[in-house]
Amino acid sequence: MHHRIRSAGLAERLMSADEAAALIQPGMTVAMSGFTGAGYPKAVPGSLAKLMAREHDAGKEFRIKVLTGASTAPELDGVLAEARGMELRLPFQSDPALRSQINAGEIDYIDMHLSHVAQHTWFGFFGHIDLAVVEVAGILEDGRLIPSSSVGNNMTWLRDADKVILEVNEWQPDGLEGMHDVYYGTALPPNRKPIMLEHPEDRIGEPYLHVDPAKVVAVVETNAPDRNSPFNPPDEASTRIAGHILDFLEHEVKRGRMPEQLLPLQSGVGNVANAVLAGLASGGFRGLTAYTEVIQDGMLDLLRSGVLRMASATSFSLSAPGLEEFNANVDFYHDKILLRPQEISNHPEVIRRLGCIAMNGMIEADIYGNVNSTHIAGSKMMNGIGGSGDFARNSFLSIFMSPSTAKGGRISGIVPMVSHVDHTEHDTMVLVTEQGLADMRGLSPKQRARLVIEKCAHPDFRPLLEDYFDRACRDSLGKHTPHLLGEALSWHQRFVETGSMRP
Ligand code: 0RQ
């Protein structure tokens, strides 16, 4: 019997990745595991991409619709994009080849809140799921599945897809078993019940995934590592952003608005977010918790040093050295990390109840605090909104951060009007750049604008923003949220035409 495949019935469905991929037909809606570079299928997508390329060479169309938890890795999004094998993709991506096809208008991409994906599937909004390809760490004697390094939407994919291909990845550490909490209690409206999760460490589900064995059409063995892009070491801007956030959190504790152990932290993806975690390590805090989406390298450091007591997420998002650290010390992390389905890790009800501190990156913010997390110049997709909206709207504190300029100072991160809105002024409380921190809570639009320009804008762009705002206050049709409509997006237009927002 195979070490990782202990169900005799499912062991009989063992086959090669090529044989399994041949079960996928053009036009199918295929749901795959994977959340950032963790827990995605490592073999079947590659075989499928080869099959697609052969069909395309023969002049035949072969494209599928691909649903996942979030972004994946070159072995999934990369190969399928290069094979021109996707007609639709949701809900989050970060692969360069896929991104360029999205921005060339060749693939339909649906960018959506990550907490919505499972329920939109249950509600039937995406139509029928033909097949699921899900990586697991093992199969028990009774057919239950040991989840892999991400849970994402796997509970939903395994339950709602007509057919299932399982990839059993021997590379995943044995110690993952027991680290998951898969909640099967969500009913559809109007019969929903409260999610009884009151603390980040609460368990409300079970450590295993279920699948109807009759639906499993293939089991494929793999032995391949997860893959995430490495983080840049924190640069000066990120370190200063982290410093502003730490000062602010200490101030909030002193004012009695937050306990000494703070409130559960949510930290987004990206270099700035990772630098903030590194900053927390030296901030003197102890015994904190995280209720977040992804565990990145910075969180492992915090768990090791005791700054963080435990972390709840839906996935790992570790660089190669981070993976090595986790796999070598999985016993240490076993009772300090909980992985949940993404509709629970990102659940608005739970985030509101726990009172999270949300810290997410942004592309740009405008003077009133509207935030664009996704689109360059209003039309070019970067990654997607991910879970930032789930947390921003529902957290106790919602912080957005970015360097004050991008692309060598040619672009201002603070603009008169954002070119795309992901988080409205009603969802954002604090903006931070390396220049400073604007606490917009309790302020009216005009008060917000003065503060954001003063604290967050780069000195090169500050006088231009002051000038815009002064003239808007004088000439705007309404004086509540003053704007000069003919000029509000002129900075972006200048960037499109000249490559710079500078006049
Ligand atoms: O470009 O890669 O070519 O150098 O954007 O920018 O400053 O390194 O910041 O890595 O933190 O990413 C919003 C993209 C920030 C991220 C975003 C360019 C810049 C650089 C990256 P290069 P930085 P970060 C939960 C949370 C949405 C999803 C989310 C993100 C690149 O935070 O995807 O929050 N957020 N999920 O040069 C043109 C501007 C720019 C700009 C930055 N104004 N104009 N380019 N860049 N600002 C987790 C999950 O959901 C999984």
Automatic annotation (TrEMBL):
<dbReference type="Pfam" id="PF02550">
    <property type="entry name" value="AcetylCoA_hydro"/>
</dbReference>
<comment type="similarity">
    <text>Belongs to the acetyl-CoA hydrolase/transferase family.</text>
</comment>
<protein>
    <submittedName>
        <fullName>Acetyl-CoA hydrolase</fullName>
    </submittedName>
</protein>
<feature type="domain" description="Acetyl-CoA hydrolase/transferase N-terminal">
    <location>
        <begin position="10"/>
        <end position="221"/>
    </location>
</feature>
<keyword id="KW-0378">Hydrolase</keyword>
<dbReference type="InterPro" id="IPR003702">
    <property type="entry name" value="ActCoA_hydro_N"/>
</dbReference>
<dbReference type="GO" id="GO:0016787">
    <property type="term" value="F:hydrolase activity"/>
</dbReference>
<dbReference type="InterPro" id="IPR037171">
    <property type="entry name" value="NagB/RpiA_transferase-like"/>
</dbReference>
<dbReference type="Pfam" id="PF13336">
    <property type="entry name" value="AcetylCoA_hyd_C"/>
</dbReference>
<dbReference type="InterPro" id="IPR026888">
    <property type="entry name" value="AcetylCoA_hyd_C"/>
</dbReference>
<feature type="domain" description="Acetyl-CoA hydrolase/transferase C-terminal">
    <location>
        <begin position="322"/>
        <end position="468"/>
    </location>
</feature>
<dbReference type="InterPro" id="IPR017821">
    <property type="entry name" value="Succinate_CoA_transferase"/>
</dbReference>
<dbReference type="InterPro" id="IPR038460">
    <property type="entry name" value="AcetylCoA_hyd_C_sf"/>
</dbReference>
<dbReference type="InterPro" id="IPR046433">
    <property type="entry name" value="ActCoA_hydro"/>
</dbReference>
